[in-house]
Structures are given as structure tokens and as C-alpha cells.
Design a protein that fits this description.
Elements lengths: L11 H29 L13 H17 L3 H27 L7 H12 L4 H21 L15 H30 L13 H12 L1 H4 L3 H32 L1
Helix pairs in contact: 1-2, 1-3, 1-9, 3-4, 4-5, 5-6, 6-9
Length: about 260
């Protein structure tokens, strides 16, 4: 079930990535709503609803706004996720294909470069994919040391549980590194004050004010909801992607 490039690569990566995006958003969207509401609330606007924790936020939104509140913005999210994951895996695989022409095994730098090219810049996704590929190599090497199977044949070494674990671990690393920047972006995007003036001037202003009034905790506000949403979601994404990709490639080889 390897996500790595093969000579017969065609359209399977796009299909597998798109289906992974649909499954991920369908499962995790309510927690995305909760995360956003935590991020934009710095505690200084009394008109915004206040939630004690993730569970309380989910219960309150469901009670006061119903199912629609938990899935607010779902259709744009699932459309965007389907397209973006499909395209991301497409360009990621194409970049790996190009780098693989002159080497047997890609280095961490080449995985990072491939992921960065797919995302247009070094972002959360680039960190996640690099971590995934490197952890995957470690898992393959570990299992191959206890097996007679070729160490490069991940299809015969790794199973669905392995891919789910690798997806969750890589996502955790990416979140811890990039979450403060998500908080800053969310606060810059929130509604202006009642007199029409923006709450924050720029990113540096957000960082200063957040550190001043909330300390380090302010930069990780809502991270519990984020972890509860994205770590299992990453497991689903890579679990679905790897299995769908494997089935599509197997069907093509038999056809």
C-alpha cells in the first residue's frame, strides 16, 4: 500500500486523495467549528459565546444551534478538501517521481521539497508529509529486519494500522510546530470592533497582544479541539489513501 511513486503511476493518486479528503472532512468538521471558535475568542469580547472545553463547546453548539451549527460551512469545506487533497497528492507524487529518477531512496530533504512543491510553499502540509515519509521508512526498516520480505516493499510489510499510526504521528508533529501561526491568522480574520476598526493591525500586533494578555497558552488556544479533530483525521486520510491507492493499482495490474 505504498504511497511512493511507481513507473505505472497514472490517476490513482488523485482519486485516492480526493476520497481521503471526503472521509476526513465528514468525520472531523464539528471539531473544526469548535477549534475556530476557540481561536478567535481571546476573552476580551463579552458578546462571543464562552466555552469551558471542547466537550462543552460541542454540547452547547449542538443544543443551541443544532446539527446545522456543528456542520456550518460543511459544503464548501468538503468541496475544498476533495479538490485540495486530490491535487496535493497528485503534485506530491509527481515531484517524488522527478526526484526518484536519479536515486533509489529519497532523503528527508527530497520529501520536504516534494511536499513543499505540492503546497507551493513550506507549510504545515510539508512538515506533515516529510514526517510521514520518514516515520514510514523507519517502520519499514524495523519490520523488514524481522522479515524476509524486501525492505523496499512496504505493500508487504505495513498494514492499515501502521498507516493510521504513521498518519496520526506525523500530524501531531506538524500541529505542535505550526499551531501558533494558525491562531494568529484566525485572529487577524475575525470581525472588526463595533466601530469598524480592526482588532489587530498585523501579525506582529496579534503576537504581542496575545503574549501580553494570555502568555504562551494563548498561542495554543483551542489546540485540544484541533488535536481531537486532526490527529484521528490524519489517520483516516492516510488509511483511506493508502488502501484506495493499493486497490486501484492492483486492479490496473490485473486488468
Amino acid at each position: 500500500m505504498s504511497a511512493s511513486w511507481s513507473p505505472d503511476w497514472k490517476w490513482e493518486n488523485v482519486t485516492a486523495g480526493a476520497l481521503a479528503g471526503i472521509a476526513t472532512v465528514s468525520f472531523s468538521h464539528p471539531l473544526d467549528v469548535v477549534r475556530t471558535r476557540f481561536q478567535v475568542n481571546d476573552g476580551r469580547i463579552s458578546s462571543l459565546p464562552t466555552y469551558k472545553n471542547t466537550h462543552h463547546a460541542l454540547f452547547t453548539i449542538a443544543r443551541t444551534e443544532g446539527f446545522r451549527g456543528l456542520y456550518a460551512g460543511f459544503y464548501p469545506a468538503i468541496l475544498g478538501s476533495t479538490i485540495s487533497w486530490g491535487l496535493y497528492f497528485f503534485f506530491y507524487s509527481k515531484a517524488k517521481q522527478r526526484y526518484s529518477r536519479n536515486m533509489e531512496e529519497l532523503s528527508p530533504f527530497h520529501h520536504l521539497a516534494s511536499a513543499a512543491e505540492a503546497g507551493a510553499l513550506v507549510t504545515h502540509g510539508a512538515i506533515q508529509f516529510t514526517a510521514y515519509e520518514e516515520l514510514r521508512k523507519v517502520a519499514v526498516q524495523y519490520k523488514s529486519s524481522k522479515s524476509d520480505v524486501d525492505s523496499r516493499s512496504a505493500d508487504n510489510l505495513l498494514n492499515s494500522f501502521d498507516y493510521a499510526t504513521l498518519g496520526a504521528s506525523s500530524k501531531l508533529a506538524a500541529i505542535l510546530l505550526t499551531y501558533p501561526f494558525q491562531v494568529i491568522r484566525a485572529r487577524l480574520q475575525q470581525r472588526p470592533n463595533t466601530d469598524g476598526t480592526p482588532r489587530y493591525i498585523d501579525s506582529w500586533h496579534v503576537a504581542r497582544e496575545s503574549a501580553r494578555f494570555e502568555g504562551l497558552r494563548g498561542f495554543y488556544k483551542g489546540i485540544t479541539a484541533n488535536l481531537l479533530k486532526n490527529v484521528p483525521a490524519a489517520s483516516i486520510t492516510f488509511l483511506v489513501y493508502e488502501n484506495v491507492l493499493y486497490m486501484l493499482k492492483s486492479a490496473r495490474m490485473k486488468g
